[in-house]
Amino acid sequence: MVALFEKHIKDNFPFLVKAKILIAISGGIDSVVLTYLCKEIGLNLSLAHCNFNLRGKESDLDEQFVKDLADKLDVPVYIESFDTKAYKHSHKLSTQIAARELRYNWFKSLQETFKIDYVLTAHQADDNLETFLINLSRGTGIEGLTGIPEVNNNVVRPLLPFTRDQIKIYATENKIDWREDSSNKEAKYLRNKLRLEVLPALKEVNPTFMDNFNKTIDHLNGTRGIVNHHIANLKAVLFKREKEQISIAIDELINLNPRKDYLYELFNEFGFTAWDDVENLLFAMSGKQIFSHSHRMLKNRKELLITPINPIEIEDYYELKENENTIVKPLKLDVCDVAQIGDLKNEIAYIDKDLLKYPLIIRKWKKGDYFYPLGMRNKKLLSKFFKDEKFSIVAKENTWILCSGDEIIWVISHRLDDRFKVTPKTKHILKLEYLT
């Protein structure tokens, strides 16, 4: 197995040969064998062990085993003890997700502190099959059927082509000790149930099942590459990007065939994995919206708008004091006195300064707001102005107004109020420029 492993590294991960690597080691057979193999072929390695304190004395014995192994192999080892239960409850996570977050956050800090290039984990072919079956049982697209990625940023999984049987044979032949996790024998967990009951049955039906599975994963990954390439090209055509907003013409989406598959592939990166929700939105009334964990998708007339959900609370009221030249919150404005009017564009407003009452107010619009659009004698509700100018819901939400007292001076970057315009009687001109 050493020769096969070394060839696998040189052929597929040559960047590991001279890299500084960190092996995530639990003390179980897979991570212990990975450690021995990496040591055998001369990689520059250190070990990292997480004690999650979930199995009482067993957890402490695992930790001591890893320390002893590091001494035996003469490699550096890092140990961290976590209060996983407290983290789980405070962050409202499952035990598995809590442990994963703690583990990878710690690995990241170790990488930064000790200048480590790559983290190696000991996932192997049987783990890959279990993941495949779990995703299949829950329903998934091609992404979920391609298994565990061999490389994900700086995390590498070099044991994926090797089966649990191969690993056990190597450990037995070389008299390698490892720790058994008693929880792995509990069939109440889906992954364990698959490992203990389903996989043995599949291998019994077809002794070459694992080889065939690995070939299938290779084929699926190739197909995924083709699909991803096509979808990327389609996004380049359909997605119109402006700052953080993406707009897509609904007619273009309706004409896709098979529509549901395209909708899934186009929008799953934004967290919209239920294609029927997206399809229903295509035929809904304008203003209808759906949410994922990270994004909002809104129907705006003949298009869909996708915007990120911003977790940061932004105040909706700011003051601009006299003689203040620049503001950066909630938006960027340059303010200065000028002798005459210059460029005329939506992003710039020229105002009769003597009509202003300081401090000026920058705020979001509210129902009932009105102003006198430049060039008009009559007032107009902002809501009517937005409708006439065909503002989307997102555009309305993102619009700020500049006020002097209760009077609107400028719908920023859209329209000046006629009452504050520069006239032949104006003595002092204030220039405001909205910087995108």
Please sum up the structure shown.
It catalyses: cytidine(34) in tRNA(Ile2) + L-lysine + ATP = lysidine(34) in tRNA(Ile2) + AMP + diphosphate + H(+). This protein has 436 residues and is an alpha+beta fold.
Topology (elements, then pairings):
Blueprint: H1 2-12, E1 20-24, H2 29-40, E2 44-51, H3 57-73, E3 77-81, H4 84-91, H5 95-114, E4 118-120, H6 125-138, H7 142-145, E5 151-152, E6 155-156, H8 164-173, H9 190-205, H10 209-238, E7 240-242, E8 245-249, H11 250-254, H12 259-267, H13 275-282, E9 289-291, E10 295-300, E11 303-308, E12 317-320, E13 326-327, E14 332-338, E15 348-352, E16 360-364, E17 370-371, E18 380-381, H14 382-388, H15 393-397, E19 400-404, E20 407-411, E21 415-416, E22 429-435
Parallel strand pairs: 1-2, 1-4, 2-3, 4-6
Antiparallel strand pairs: 5-6, 7-8, 8-11, 9-10, 10-11, 12-16, 13-14, 14-22, 15-22, 16-19, 17-18, 19-20, 20-21
